[in-house]
Amino acid sequence: MTAEITEIYEIEAPLSIRKREEFRENLIESIEEILSFSQVILNFLELNTPFKKSSIIECPDVFSYELEDLFGDSARGIEDLILERLYNKINRKYEKDRSKKFEEYIRDALKGYIEYY
User: Fold this and answer.
1) Residue 35 domain-assigned?
2) Residue 99 lies inside a defined structural domain of this protein
3) Distance of alpha carbon 91 from its chain centroid, rounded?
4) Which end of the chain is more exposed for a tag (fewer CB within 10 A), N or C?
5) What is the largest CA-CA distance in the chain?
């Protein structure tokens, strides 16, 4: 029954909503592929900080802040790896720019993903 409801939702949902969800899934997958213990980290962040997986594309700055709080200076390298993986998944070229923040990359990628697909 749940699968049927999900299928109906996927068919009837506006394209931009479906694309946002696909993008969210790609972002979460990218995080999970980069961080070998990602479920532990994501669960820890959800339980102990304002971060929520369900709002990662709406508030990527919260994820970035909490990741930096957890990993310190290493967080930027982790973010770069996540962004590289995400951009690869959505067939976009990732160009590292130190003046650009994680949340800017996410918003740009989401916008491009929705417009392109």
Assistant:
1) yes
2) yes
3) 15
4) N
5) 48
Residue 12 lies in a domain: no
Q: Between the CA atoms of 79, 84, 90 and 95, what dihedral angle is there, to the nearest 10 degrees?
A: 110
What is the number of domains present in the chain?
1
Classify residue 3: in a domain, yes or no.
no
**In three state form, how does the secondary structure of 50-92 look?**
CCCHHHCCCCHHHHHHHHHHHHCCHHHHHHHHHHHHHHHHCCC
**Tokens in use for 52?**
């929520």
CATH number, position 77: 1.10.1200
Residue 23 tokens read as: 């993008």
Domain containing 58 equals 18-116
